[in-house]
Structure formats: C-alpha cells, structure tokens
Amino acid sequence: MTTTVPGTTPAAGPLGDRRTEAQEKDIMRFRVVSGSDLTSRNDAYLAWQRDREQADLWPYFRHYETAALTTRATVVSDTGVVTQGPNFGGQDYLSLSSHPAVLDAAHQALRDYGPLTAGSPALGGATPISRALEAGLAEALRTEHVALFPTGWASGFGTIRALMHRRDHILLDKLSHDSLRQGAAASGASVEFFRHLDNDAVRRHLAKIRATDTANAVLVVTEGVFSMDSDTPQLAELLGICREFGAQLMVDVAHDFGAMGEFGGGQLEVHGTLGEVDFVVGAFSKTFATTGGFLATPSASAREYVRMFGGPQTFSSAITPVQTAVALASLSIVKSPEGARRRAAVAAVATRLREGLTARGLEVMGDVVCPVVPVLIGDTPTGRTASGLIARAGLVAHLVEQPAVASDAARFRMQAMADHSDADVDTAVDILDTCIRAARQTAR
Hints:
Layout: H1 18-24, H2 43-54, E1 63-64, E2 72-76, E3 82-86, H3 100-113, H4 128-140, E4 145-149, H5 152-163, E5 169-173, H6 178-187, E6 190-194, H7 199-212, E7 218-223, H8 235-244, E8 248-252, H9 266-270, E9 279-283, E10 293-297, H10 300-309, H11 312-315, H12 321-334, H13 337-359, E11 363-364, E12 372-378, H14 380-393, E13 398-400, E14 410-415, H15 422-443
Parallel strand pairs: 5-6, 5-7, 7-8, 8-9
Antiparallel strand pairs: 1-2, 2-3, 4-10, 9-10, 11-12, 12-14, 13-14
Helix pairs in contact: 1-2, 1-14, 3-12, 4-12, 5-6, 5-10, 7-8, 13-15, 14-15
C-alpha cells in the first residue's frame, strides 16, 4: 500500500509555458559558448537556471542546516524550499562522522597541531599523523607506498597527470569518474575509452596498441564500484589481461574501500586482488568521515615521482591535521570487529531499500549490494519534476542528470548509511514511489 505524501501534487508553477523549457532544456547546450565578454556570455545559462529555480526544478547547491551526515536532516534550497526528513543524500556509509572515537581524534589533533597545515605535502604539510595514516593505509591495502592528497578528486587527477606522458596510452572505462578523465586529458597521453565493464574490449584495445607500440606505457583505469550504476568490474580477470599485454592497472576505490569486503578491503578484497594492483586511488569522503584522498602503490619510484610532479602534492595545501586524524581513527574502526558490524548494517539498509523500491515497480540499478542504490527514472524532465516533489515531501535525495549521466538515464542516487533505521528506509521508499509516480503522470 502506498502512503499519501503531502506536497506531491504537481503545481502548474509560475512560469506557464516556460516550465516546459525549464524541464526539458539540456544543460549541455550551455557547455560551449562564444562571445568576447566573459562577464556576460553566460547570461543565457543563468536565465535558464533561474527559470528552473522558480519552477521548483533545480536540485543543486542546497545547504544543510543540521549536521550533514545524520540519518535525518534539514536541507534548504537556494530558493528557500526546506526539506526535513530521512537523509539519503549524505556520504557517510559507515556512519562514522559522529562516532565518539572519531570526534575525540579530531579534537586531539586540533589541540596538538592546530587547524591548518604548514603548506603543501612537498613543503612541510605533513605531521606524525600523516605518516601513521600512510602506514595504516599501506597495511590495509597490502601495499608498501602511500601518498596523501588534499581531496579524492586530486588523487585520481594528480596521479594520472604525473605518471602519463605524451607517447603513452590510457584506457578508461567509459563511465570513469571526472577526476580520472580530467587527469588523462591533462597528461597529453593518447586516451581511449572502453565499453563499461567489458574486459574483452580492454583486451582488443591492448592488442591493437601493442601491435604497434611496445616501448611506451599503457595505463588501464577502472573503479572498484561505479557509484552511478552500482556495479563492479571483474578485477582479477582485468588484472590478468593487463599483465598479458604489459599494461598497468589503476583502480579508484572511493566508494568501496572500507565499506565493503569482509575486512573492509573493498572490491579488491572481494576479487582477491589486494596488493596486486599497480595503482590504487581513493577518497576519505565516503567511508572515512572526512575529505582527502590517497595513492597506494607497490612502486617506491612511482610514489616519489607523483609526490614531486602530482600537482596537488606541490601546489596545494595538504589535508589538515584534523582531517588526517579523522581518517586514521576511521581506518582503525574499519579494520575492527565494529567495522565489520557496520558494513553488515549498511548492506542491510541497502538491501531493504533495494527490495522495497523493487516491490513498488521501480527500477533499481546495479549488480552488487553496496551503499549506493541508484533508482533509474529515465528521461530528464520527469527526473527534474520528481526531484522538486521529493524535496517538498520530506526526503533528502539527489537527482543525477546530464552531464553526469546520459539525458535519457536520469536517476536518484540513494546513499545508505549504517545508522539508517527501517523506518527511514520505508519512508524513503514511500516518498520516492509517490513522487516518481506523480511526476510520470504529469509527463503524460
């Protein structure tokens, strides 16, 4: 039985016929613009954004008025729409951001080292906590050498940008994260994309490259879990293919390391490849209750080269002592029996969410139970309408549309936390079901 959710009746809106343009106009139409005046040539984009805001179809740049990573929260949009209710928009998979040990570590680091680093990692930005975190990550990932980055984005971008050069080759899964794509583009190497999760396609690409070039490096790039689709590659097979053709493998483990696997090793652990992959990059912002990122590699020379030429390592301030201490305390929990219990809890939340949504006839994406539960809507106009309804109905959930996904593949990316209750999940299912149905009815 579907619960009636207040605020889900689609309104005509103040814009009349302009609402259709706000619903349907593609954001990528504004990606490339021309004109001599940089202060005014984006005015058409701004007008379109304002139309979407006034039509209650703008889901971006909301802010939290409560703690952002609690299971229930209050969020306010740029136009003043207040959403209070279950929070499936936060990224705190193991619910560690409020853990007493994590908070104590943050307070102690603030007292001992202050709120700011002395500079970039290359110029005095490290503390003893930094060294302890690097050692802990190396042990957890069964590799020897770790470098910390100020953000997860910087770890993927900086590592690829530093290691790859003009005559080299980069193969990326076509759904690779923006940081990986940008790093590849900035490197000057030859860049190709292979079909999502298609190891046979990787083999064909590598065979073609090695038929004419055996002298230069080839880097194959994938992710442990692709968060927009909640699926994962066959990593052991992919690693074997790379070895066959003398290529190196990079895996971005931002969404799975710490949150998946019996001991928290993510999909590398699940697929038996811990300690085998050439380059592992990741972020602390999903499971480790803070921001920052890392590179882990068995190669001492690669680590030192990235530390010197990796951009953010030399030209951006290092993560703060508080961030470092939080990540280290979170890592300690991840590796403990409590971490295993929390991983089981978030898997149970994600499973209940998946089963509840599927029972309502909604399409849940993915082939692996992980903290990210994508709910496919399809066409972007319906997704935009549903997003406005959901915000008013009392559910914090993020719509993903172009350019992050294709224009006919809009979806809500629900993010489970270990501390979500059954009631939180059931309320979210009711609101999603009711609002998506209402949006689809409006679109007819």
